[in-house]
Amino acid sequence: MKKIIVLLHLALIVNLFAFNAVAAEKPNMDEPQGYKYSNWEISRFNDAIIYKTHGMAVHGHKFGWVKRAGHCNKEFMYLTFSSMHKDKGLLEKIVKSDVPVEVIFPQMEPSHPAKLYMYLVAVNDLTFGGTKIATFTGIESNQMFDAFMEHFNLIEIEIVGAHQALFDIPIDTWSLDGYIAAKTKAQEMCEAIITDETSI
């Protein structure tokens, strides 16, 4: 198990250029939208493709992966957690810093969490209710992580440490049903962007 945790730690490579495109931009509505496989949905944001699913505890908690045209074989984790904390300033102070999380596949036996670090990209306000959305990235997918994603049906992520108090529900679980189909479609869409640009 220690080997697994070490390998997961090696996956902590931040690609902010790819991720900021998704965190900062709105979807290009001229592109096909609404691809969905079980609990997973796939969208295009200009030259980035994101495929994600919603939390089982909080629907607004999103988990998934982002890839960018020209680098279709690399993808980085996309994660959002909501916060009702009255002082948004406390959240904004930790933007562009690493936040510790524990990742676990509940069906794995024995099941031990891997402590990783997610990079907090942005904190945004929703238009109602005073809710804030924290958007994280920083973990690059690798062969072992992907194998776990394909094999198990659930993944659980918990924000831990001192930052946990900033989130009302700092833990959530996401269904992996539909993950393989969504990943395949996302790869197809990413490669199609390159094909489209080449043919111009």
Task: Give a written overview of the molecule.
This protein is an alpha+beta fold. The protein has one domain (about 1-145, about 175-200). It has 5 helices and 10 strands. It has helices at about 1-10, 15-25, 90-95, 145-150, 180-200, and strands at about 35, 40-45, 50-55, 60-70, 70-85, 100-105, 115-125, 130-135, 155-160, 170-175. A 10-stranded antiparallel β-sheet has the order 1-2-3-4-5-8-7-6-9-10, with helices on both faces. A hairpin with a 6-residue loop joins strand 7 and strand 8 (about 130-135). The longest helix is centred in the C-terminal third of the chain and has 21 residues, at about 180-200. The model is unreliable at about 1-30 (pLDDT under 50).
Give the N-terminus to C-terminus distance in angstroms: 49 Å
The largest pleated sheet is described as: 10 strands, antiparallel
Indicate the proportion of strand residues: 35-45%
| Helix-and-strand structural type | alpha+beta
Topology:
Blueprint: H1 2-10, H2 16-24, E1 35-37, E2 40-45, E3 48-54, E4 62-68, E5 71-83, H3 88-93, E6 98-104, E7 114-125, E8 132-137, H4 143-151, E9 154-159, E10 171-175, H5 179-199
Antiparallel strand pairs: 1-2, 2-3, 3-4, 4-5, 5-8, 6-7, 6-9, 7-8, 9-10
